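Example A, followed by Example B.
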Amino acid sequence: MTTSLTPPAAPRTGPRYPTAQQLRRRRIVQRIFIYLAAIAVGLFAVFPLYWMAITAVKPQAEIITPEPVWWPSELVFDRFPQVIDRGFGRFLRNSLIVAVTTTAIGLVVATMAGYALARFRIPLRKYLALVILATQLFPVVVLLIPLFIVMRNLGLTGSLWGLVVAYLAFITPLMIWILRGFFLSVPNELEEAALIDGCTRFGAMRRVVLPLAGPGIAAVSIFAWIAAWNEFLFALTFVRSESLRTLPVGLAFFVEQERVDHGAIMAASLLFTLPVVVFFLFVHKRLTTGLVAGAVKG
């Protein structure tokens, strides 16, 4: 009779891999949490717009109540003609003039300066770029009084051109920095090939570099437009005439000394915000792509 001396097999101690069913269950749970988080963020972002729109059409007695009124008993649309009669069209025209002029001039200056910093061998080029970006470190309030003195000595206070110059002083440096990153991301070989084929430096820039940097140009244009459209402090300080007020300043003057017409303020805010929201919905993909791509190289 023989006995086996073979030791028992050791239990497996290797890593346990999840099964396909477990992986599928994890993906479903992760997707549910992602959708719930997206819905929460969306509601958080949309609710102020909803409340502004609802308040604009509420009766006056339902605007300020102990308990919030989520839906008005009747819709009141009379405030919108009243807002337009109080100078909204004039404020809109002034804001359009300032925003369009600031965006156009800033885009030309930033394109030329960003291209020069990215392509030409300028002495202390990197330090110059840092100095340009360092102008964004100063709070606007700190420079408000010195800039007002400069504008007064130049005779630019009380005019829309003064606002354009002030906005360009703070918007253009960041536009230059973003476009510089885009121009650095364009390979030099493409531009050199255009120069070999007979293009001038400006022709190569216009035909090769600028089309490839199109998302960055669109991004800085949108940034300049929104910054000039929403600015309030300079517009309030440099322009005192009622006929030259921009939309943010005109909206602030809806708050009267003896009473506050919350319905009219919300109606004006809705008219002021809605075009920007609609415009942003069309361009937000290009804006985010441009800002991220422009930050890759610097």
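Example B, a separate protein, is given below in the same form.
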Amino acid sequence: MSSFQRWAFGLTVPAALLTICLYVVPILQVLALSFTEPTFGFGNYVEMFGSAAIGRVVRTTMIVSAVTTVLTIVVSYVVAFALVHMRPAARRVALFMVMVPFWVSVLVRAFAWITILRRNGVLNSALVGSGAIAEPLELVYNQFGVIVGMVHYMMPFAILLLYANLSEIDPRIIQAARSLGARPVTIFTRVWLPLSLPGLAIASLFIVIFSLGFLVTPAILGAGRVLMVAEYISVQISSTLRWGVATALSTTLLLVVGLLVAVAARSPALRAAFEGGRR
């Protein structure tokens, strides 16, 4: 081992120890609690898989996560596609606008959506005042409000991931397709879309994983009526003190996320996304 390798190895040791102490050890404690609280055995897992309440929470989480992922990907792809085709000056302004939400707290954004979507909020007041509707719509404290808030939160991440992928597509390929007489729709479906599959794959994976463990936005915009897995775990720990069920559900969620990453890592599209910068 060269001196540089020894020096590099020495630098990684503190980070590795910190990761073990702050991440691996707590996860092992959660895993142990799922088998030992309140009594030793698989009772928490049996209760978790046999509970109708947990089943409803899991179904709600899956539905909200799936809808959020689809809507976020579709809207973000449109924005990223537009960014690629903008002039440099306009693109800089647009990218700045995309990154502005990163500077705003998730709590502020969630309460802003309540102001917009509530019965006497900005949107309902505008619709009623214009005569478009007779009665205010129920746009918040339900799945619709939760999905709106989650899509808004996820979009900057997805836009940047997709923009990075789309901007790497060689423009000469597009020019070649045009020179051969391909129409814009054909160019998009036969060139842009296939070449952007790695970006779509990694953005979708990111959104799904983030959505499965989302807590703040569903808790505020759902107001307890749209109970997702993360909020259910929080309630079990802080209110009902059912640590065994909560840790069992946390462990299962962690395993599901790990399985998603492992399966996705076997996909050529996702591997291309991670290895795109290698030459």
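On Example B: Residues 1-40 form one domain.
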